[in-house]
Every structure is written in C-alpha cells, then in structure tokens.
Design a protein that fits this description.
This protein has helices at about 10-20, 50-60, 65-70, 75-85, 95-100, 105-110, 120, 125-140, 155-165, 175-185, 195-205, 215, 220-230, 265-270, 275-285, 315-320, 350-360; strands at about 1-5, 30-35, 40, 90, 110-115, 140-145, 170-175, 250, 290-300, 305-310, 325-330, 340-345. The protein is α/β, with parallel strands linked by helices. It has 2 domains: about 1-150 and about 350-360, 3-Layer(aba) Sandwich (Rossmann fold); about 155-345, Dihydrodipicolinate Reductase, domain 2 (2-Layer Sandwich). The strands form 2 sheets. The chain has a 6-stranded mixed beta sheet with strand order 3-2-1-4-5-6, sandwiched between helices. A 6-stranded mixed beta sheet has the order 8-10-9-7-11-12. α1 links the parallel β1 and β2. The structure holds NADPH dihydro-nicotinamide-adenine-dinucleotide phosphate, the ligand N[C@@H](CC=O)C(=O)O and sodium ion. One of its GO terms (molecular function) is homoserine dehydrogenase activity.
Length: about 375
C-alpha cells in the first residue's frame, strides 16, 4: 500500500514517526512521497524513525510548489499506481484549503484520502457532496477521525450510532483542545489566575492551536467541528449550506485583532485583550461560576451553536476537565437516560497523529 504524505509540521512529522515505528515485518505501508509546502521527496529511500527529517532536508526536491506537483506529476504517478492495482492513500496533514479542494479529483481517481484537516468537510456543502460522490464513483474512501477530538473516537462513534439506526437528538461538549486548555487554566474557582494572553501563548507552545491561533479564538475551529459532525446526521445535512460560516459562533477575537496576518503578530498583540477577559472571569466568579467554550448540535430544534458559557464551579465541565481535554456527549434514543460520553486530550501532535494513523490502519 502506497502512502503519499502531504504536510510534515507538528502532526505530519509525528505521523511519519509513528508510521515508521510500526512493527517492521507486518508494516504493509510504503511511503511513496513526503511533502512540505515547497519541497517534495518522491520514493524516499532508507527512511528511519527519528532520522528521516534531516534526510528530507537534503534529499527533497524544491523544484515546484506541492499543490502544482499534486495536480501534475505527483498526482499522475499516484493515479498510475491505482491503475496498476495498488492501494494508494493520500494523507493530508496540512490545514490547506487548496489541498482540500483536490480531494474530489483524487477520490474519483481511486486514491483514498485521510486527514486531520477540517477544511474540506466544514466548508461549502457543494465540496462535501463532491467528495461523497467522488468516493462512491470509484470506491475510494475518506477518513477524517482526527478532525474532531483529535485521536478520540468521536467520528467513528457517531457513524456507528447513525448507521446502526440510533437517533441522535443532541451532541454537546467542549470541542476545542485550545479553548479547553485556556479556560481550564484561566477560569477556575480561585480568585487569582494567569493572564489570558499567557495561557493562549502556552496553548500554542504545547501544539494545541491551529497554525494561526485566531482560528481557535474566533470559534471557527469549533464551528468547523460542529459542521463536520452535523454532516453525518442525515436530517442536518442541508442545514449548513455554507459550512461553518452558517454556525452561530461567538468569537473571542476583538475587532482590533481580527485581521492580523501571522500567528506570531497575533500573540504579540494579545495582551491588549487581557483586561476585557479579566472582567469576564471576575464576573463569572462573583456568580460562583467558571467560563467554558462549548458547542451544541440540537437536532430537534436544528440549532448549531458555539459559545462561551458560564458553569457552576461544581459542574462537570468545571471539575473534570484538565489539559487539552475534550468532552463530547451524545444524547440518543439508545443512550436515553445517560449520554454516551467521550473524554480525553483533544489536541496535540501525538494524539492527533495517532488518530490519523488509526484511519490509515483501516485499510489493512
Ligand atoms: N495540532 C493539533 O492538535 C491538531 C491539528 N489538527 C489539524 O492537523 C493539521 C496540521 O496541523 P499542524 O501539524 O499543527 O500544522 P503545522 O502548521 O505544524 O504544519 C502544517 C504542514 O503543512 C504544510 N503545508 C501547508 N500548506 C501546504 C500546501 N499548500 N502544500 C503542502 N504542504 C503544505 C506545511 O509546510 P511547511 O513545512 O513548508 O510550512 C507544514 O509542513 C491542521 O489541519 C490542523 O487543523 C487536527 C487536530 C488536532
Ligand atoms: N486547534 C485545535 C486542534 C484540534 O483540532 C484544538 O485546539 O482543538
Ligand atoms: Na477524533
């Protein structure tokens, strides 16, 4: 089985490490290519866990940008392998919209796609439907478990509930590892705490944030996850024609910081926002509450919402979450009295790459 890896950042590099660490005699995977945004190494030789990154820098070719290459020679080579009867999997470890737009082309050519990249599944419904149609026409599959809850089995659980005929009435919880880490540390039952900007900076250092942290703080990351999950529930499929943009979303990015181009500049400017967040924290504590950023998909009322809420200091969201924990509760007919709950780290390279690798192992 041939694996073309696009993106070798935090998640992509960890994914390659984990793939190369699988037991050798039973490892059915042949890494066909590894790409960053500007460099590609086709048919890499002698890849060794922990040492491949150095070899990539010296051996990868930077003749073309990766999107162009995927649309031309690299894409054609992958399609030739499919025609020769091989299984080929494109692993997109980027957050690129442009790469996401290529999924229908690859799927219809029989190339399977797995990815933690939320873009394709949470944008326009048209692209999502093209992906479904392309997969059905060729039999190629897409798996995207790490797009929601990183390695936590959220999407596979929802698919199992729906395909076995359960009725999902509501999904609710904390869907962002970054927001979870921020508020678990910033808003507690204690009067004094760290500044908002300092916990955001730490979340970024820990690898929880999107490449641009504003994509977490503006709620878009949660809105995208809610869109992805909603699209597995047949009655909600038409509800978000423009994808995550149609979700009722509370942004925590003040207007003055909205158009900052890079993540570094955004982090530098963030302390100007500390006083406003401090006021929210104090207000909540005066009511005996903490702040948590949550998402809800309510099937009955067809409401999909990402918002900052206050919870009693004894509520499960205040007491049982730590680190980058996500908690996702499925309310269904079969889990009527007590919801099915999934909880654990919802961001970070190791757990995200594990979700991507477990998707890849579905092909064995
Ligand atoms: N971090 C986490 O906890 C989680 C992340 N995810 C998702 O995983 C994905 C990767 O995240 P992360 O590893 O943190 O991001 P990084 O920014 O660390 O890495 C992104 C990688 O993608 C490459 N890249 C970007 N654009 C292109 C392009 N057009 N063509 C080819 N390569 C490209 C970059 O290349 P270059 O090296 O040249 O810059 C880089 O290697 C994102 O979609 C994110 O949403 C999902 C769940 C959790
Ligand atoms: N930035 C995201 C990463 C996982 O999807 C998050 O914080 O949850
Ligand atoms: Na997941």
């Amino acid at each position: 089985m041939y694996v073309a890896v696009v993106g070798k950042g935090l998640v992509g590099a960890e994914f390659v490490d984990q793939l190369l660490s699988l037991p050798v005699p039973s490892n059915p995977f042949n890494i066909f290519s590894i790409s960053s945004s500007k460099k590609t190494w086709i048919r890499p030789q002698g890849l060794v866990h922990t040492e491949w990154k150095k070899a990539f820098e010296s051996s990868a070719s930077d003749a073309s940008d990766t999107v162009t290459l995927l649309k031309s020679t690299l894409g054609t080579e992958m399609e030739t392998l499919v025609k020769a009867g091989h299984k080929v999997v494109l692993v997109d470890n980027t957050s690129s919209d442009t790469i996401a737009q290529l999924y229908p082309r690859f799927l219809s050519a029989g190339v399977n796609v797995i990815t933690p990249n939320k873009k394709a599944f949470s944008s326009d419904l048209t692209l999502y439907e093209e992906i479904l149609t392309a997969g059905m026409s060729s039999g190629a599959k897409f798996y995207n478990e790490s797009t929601v809850g990183a390695g936590l089995p959220v999407i596979s659980t929802l698919k199992d509930l729906v395909t076995t005929g359960d009725n999902v009435s509501k999904i609710e919880g904390v869907f962002s590892g970054t927001m979870s880490y921020i508020f678990n540390n910033f808003s507690t039952s204690s009067r004094n705490g760290p500044t908002f900007s300092s916990v955001v900076t730490k979340a970024r250092e820990l690898g929880y944030t999107e490449p641009h942290p504003a994509d977490d703080l503006n709620g878009a990351d949660v809105a995208r996850k809610l869109t992805i999950l909603s699209r597995f529930i047949p009655e909600l499929l038409p509800l978000l024609p423009q994808g995550y943009i149609s979700v009722d979303t509370k942004s925590l990015v003040p207007p003055a910081l909205k158009n900052i181009a890079t993540g570094d500049e955004f982090i530098q400017a963030l302390p100007t926002f500390d006083d406003a967040m401090e006021r929210l924290r104090t207000e909540a504590l005066q009511e005996g509450k903490v702040l948590r950023y949550v998402g809800v998909i309510d099937v009955a009322t067809q409401t999909i919402k990402a918002s900052l809420e206050k919870y009693d200091v004894n509520h499960a969201f205040a007491t049982s979450l730590g680190g980058s924990d996500n908690i996702i509760m499925f309310h269904t007919n079969r889990y009527g009295e007590r919801p099915l709950i999934i909880q654990g780290a919802g961001a970070g390279a190791a757990v995200t790459a594990m979700g991507v690798l477990s998707d890849l192992l579905r092909f064995t």
